[in-house]
Design a protein that fits this description.
By secondary structure, the protein is mainly alpha-helical. It contains eleven helices and two strands; from the N terminus they run αααααααββαααα.
Length: about 270
């Protein structure tokens, strides 16, 4: 695991992802400074409209604009690059020549990939909270539905939202990891995971599917907003987490089983 962590940390794309996540809050601050404070539309107040109310509001807004796609990319990249990159470098068969079981190898790579994915998801709201507090002050979280959460209560709620976003992204992580074990092209594994995630988002917009959308992980991707309500209601997050974990377990099992019997020629 230490070797894998060092390898991931030294990759240029790790620094690129980190830089993008750090820069995004500053870009939004600049956008609000240039365009002025956001205002309600059609007498409806949304999360975006309260972005400049406090540092907590700004953090919630950053999560809202990034959870649907931006945070998908680092998860797919870290998990899809695990095995496929070794195959593309023609080092996989030499790696497996060591007296290490394939299951242990995959488990080490998966653990490191998930840890880096979690670090990416924690980095963004931490930077947003610091930048937002410096720009808009430390205050309560103003709720679009009315009312507010005290700053001390808002922090655990935001932490719960980040935790749920990570759980909801386990589907993308598992899909990218499985594809990484069946292809020698890292971009194919990463692109396939991102592409199928986008397809899921598109299908969720098809209202004709009605209750079938409840089985799509994308249908629950914004259930974390329930954590920012005056009365915490975790029903949606529990349902979304159950769907995501169920899909993830199946895909992880496919990855371990397929790789365990695969002929390695790369």
């Amino acid at each position: 695991m230490r070797v894998e962590a060092v390898r991931q940390l030294k990759r240029r794309r790790t620094f690129v992802i980190g830089a993008i996540l750090v820069v995004l809050p500053f870009v939004l601050i600049a956008a609000f400074a240039i365009g002025g404070d956001p205002s309600g539309r059609n007498n409806r107040v949304t999360l975006m409209d309260t972005a400049t109310a406090s540092g907590a509001n700004f953090t919630a807004t950053v999560l809202f604009v990034s959870a649907g796609f931006l945070l998908v990319v680092p998860v797919a990249l870290f998990c899809g690059d695990t095995v496929a990159s070794e195959a593309s470098w023609s080092s996989l068969r030499y790696l497996l020549a060591a007296p290490v079981p394939r299951t242990r190898l995959l488990l080490s790579k998966l653990t490191v990939a998930l840890l880096f994915s979690a670090a990416a998801m924690v980095l963004l709201p931490l930077v947003a909270l610091g930048v937002g507090t410096a720009a808009y002050g430390w205050g309560p979280l103003q709720l679009p539905t009315g009312g507010a959460l005290a700053a001390g209560d808002a922090l655990p709620r935001l932490a719960l939202a980040v935790a749920y976003i990570f759980v909801s992204q386990l589907v993308t992580a598992a899909l990218a990891f499985w594809l990484s074990t069946v292809t020698d092209a890292p971009l194919g594994a990463v692109g396939g995971a991102v592409g199928l995630t986008i397809v899921g988002n598109v299908l969720d917009q098809v209202t004709a599917l009605e209750q079938w959308r409840d089985f799509l992980p994308a249908h629950w991707q914004f259930a974390w907003a329930d954590a920012l309500q005056p009365q915490l209601d975790g029903t949606g997050m529990i349902q979304g987490a159950a769907v995501s974990v169920a899909y993830a377990l199946v895909l992880f099992a496919l990855a371990f089983r397929g790789f365990g019997t695969k002929d390695i020629v790369s």
